[in-house]
Amino acid sequence: MLNIVIFGAPGSGKGTQSERIIEKFGLNHISTGDVLRAEIKNETALGKTAKGYIDQGQLLPDELIINILASVLDGMKESKGVIFDGFPRTIPQAEALKVMLNERGQDVSVMLDLDVPEEELVTRLLKRGEECGRADDNMETIKKRLLVYNTQTSPLKEYYKKEGKYQYIKGLGTMEGIFSDIVSAVESL
Ligand code: AP5
Prior knowledge:
This protein is α/β, with parallel strands linked by helices.
């Protein structure tokens, strides 16, 4: 089983590269951000809760997001593995993922850390906000999302280094070039 955590700051290209990885390696995809946006669109109770956090650029509580992840994972059809996009974002989430995978006789295969300078992240997100109208792609919320990333999520790099699963990927450059580096990293596992 190939279980990939795709990691990086908001706008680092997690979703963009996930699409390519899924196609190449035949994996299932879990994007917690996409799950939450679908709940918001469908105006569910969970969606209403999620909107409050997302609009403020804050993370949802660990317990809530871990339960969502567990239920999506349970409902997935068999595949060659899963790409986890936007999860984990905190140490408790990483520990919960480890337990969930261990219960299935599996583990995280690799954590791909897409490294992109902050100035480029802001440029990409503002452009996407203009083009797609994603509600959290405005300057005020982007600043909060980056702060949350730097304080709460970035420590996961050390966590996965200690686990021997960390892989640096330069996330600046063409989408094709970055994907090629990802393929090399995954194929060398
Ligand atoms: P989520 O949807 O996960 O958002 P995010 O982490 O902020 O990431 P983005 O989707 O903004 O960026 P991305 O890295 O996927 O980049 P993309 O490929 O789209 O989460 C949203 C919110 O949900 C969170 O803030 C939180 O509130 C909540 N949430 C989600 N998961 C949670 C969790 N586990 N715990 C708690 N709360 C959670 O690319 C961005 C743009 O750049 C695109 O327009 C793309 O075309 C462009 N681009 C990509 N690659 C390149 C390139 N190489 N060159 C130029 N442009 C590029």
